[in-house]
Amino acid sequence: MTTLAFLAWLVAGVLGAILAYFTLEVLFGLKRSTPTVRRQHECCIVVIIPAHNEASTIGATVGALQQTIASGSGGTVEILVVADNCSDETAAIASATGATVTQRSDKEKRGKGYALAHGRDFLAGRAASELPDAIIVLDADCRTDRESIVELGNLVTTAQQPYQASNLLLARTSAPPMVQISNFAMLVKNVVRARGLERIGGGIPLFGTGMAFPWKIFADAPLATGDAVEDMRLALELAEKGLRVRLAENARVISEPAALEDMSAQRSRWEHGFMRTALSRAFPLLANGIGNGSRHKIALGAHLLVPPLALLFLMSGVALGANVLVGFVTAVWMPAIILAALITLAISSVIAAWVREGRETLSAQAILRAPLYILWKIPLYLGFVRSQQTDWNRTRRSGEDTPPSP
Is 140 found in the same domain as 48? Predict the structure, then answer.
């Protein structure tokens, strides 16, 4: 076998395995979960909102939550806003709207992880009888409903394990095509693949907002970190302790998508953080899972090896083109044929996910822009090689005229 043929087989084998696992996750996730009826507990829930310079949104967020809380029964719900390194009126507005507020100032230790640790320490200072049964983390620009809060509270209180709500962006087929495609990619990742991953391995990652924990787990969780993807890191730390994050599909958290001009910076933070974590943690997690016979760790490690959707198809297209050239030179066509078949299966699974879940998120006309979306993201992926974004930053909110302060 020539060197070129060997490399063609190697590329087809590696990418083929990744494509096959991606397809498996999507196919296993096409079936929607059946809602289960659970007895409601009169539990004490605290919704923690980490907020950095959120004066433009925090009043509406807390106000919407207050209306939601007042609309039914199912225990007590307290809103705790952690005003984290704020230079605006976030704390005053949140307090005036009815939230409990604690302020934190530390310019060296910035990020959601540190804010959550501060909120936990604030709660831990209360008497034992006043400690919450369940903690729900909600971003300052997100919306949810009473049913979702109560569902999460009941789940974590009953099972005494972490749960993650479905985290989606507000779907509008009137949005620019690039925004629609980005929203659909998030739906595939946070709903369809999350369902599939839970069915394969029994647990999923955390998504940063809509995370719910029983107090005893939250009290000991490794929160104080400035990692740009602190949610993924926390899920992996919990997995190392044998704790699985379960999907609460019927609990929903919705947020507005970033404006087109801000979407690149937001995606850079998310995807650079994911890829950096995957490079350092995927193979050790896989090896640990195989060594200990842990289906959860094996599936989660394999999940980390699947790059973001646009990058996966970009890499696959480039690899297929290279393998076709190798076929012309060496007459070894099987690697290209196998890779083409697996790419076709992966694309077909995404189309099935669109038919099943995504037609209200992504219009048929916008699908035609998918190749342009992949090309638009090339600078983001080149930026990962040149200068990874490792610091936490906040995406500009709707209605803000200037970028958020650091």
Answer: yes
- Within this chain, do residues 287 and 243 fall inside the same structural domain, yes or no? no
212 and 327 housed in the same domain: no
Q: Is residue 197 part of a domain?
A: no
Residue 235 shares a structural domain with residue 111:
yes
Question: What is the extent of the structural domain holding 318?
Answer: 3-30+281-386
Helices 260-292 and 177-187, axial angle in degrees (round to 10)? 20
* 299 and 214 co-located in one domain: no
Tell me if 77 is assigned to some domain. Answer: yes
> What's the one-letter identity of residue 116?
L
| CA dihedral for 394, 136, 64, 83, sign (positive or negative) | negative
Same domain, yes or no: 81 and 212: yes
Q: Residue 229 domain-assigned?
A: yes
pLDDT tens by residue, the chain, 406 residues: 799 999 999 999 999 999 999 999 999 999 988 766 555 667 899 999 999 999 988 999 999 999 888 766 557 899 999 999 999 999 999 999 999 999 999 888 888 999 999 999 999 999 998 999 999 999 998 999 988 999 999 999 999 999 999 998 876 778 888 889 989 999 999 999 999 999 999 999 999 999 999 999 999 999 988 777 888 999 999 999 999 999 999 999 998 876 666 666 667 777 888 888 889 899 999 999 999 999 999 999 999 999 999 999 999 999 999 999 999 999 999 999 999 999 999 999 999 999 999 998 999 999 999 999 898 888 888 877 776 555 555 555 555 555 455 5
Read off the pTM.
0.89
Do 66 and 210 reside in the same domain of the chain?
Answer: yes
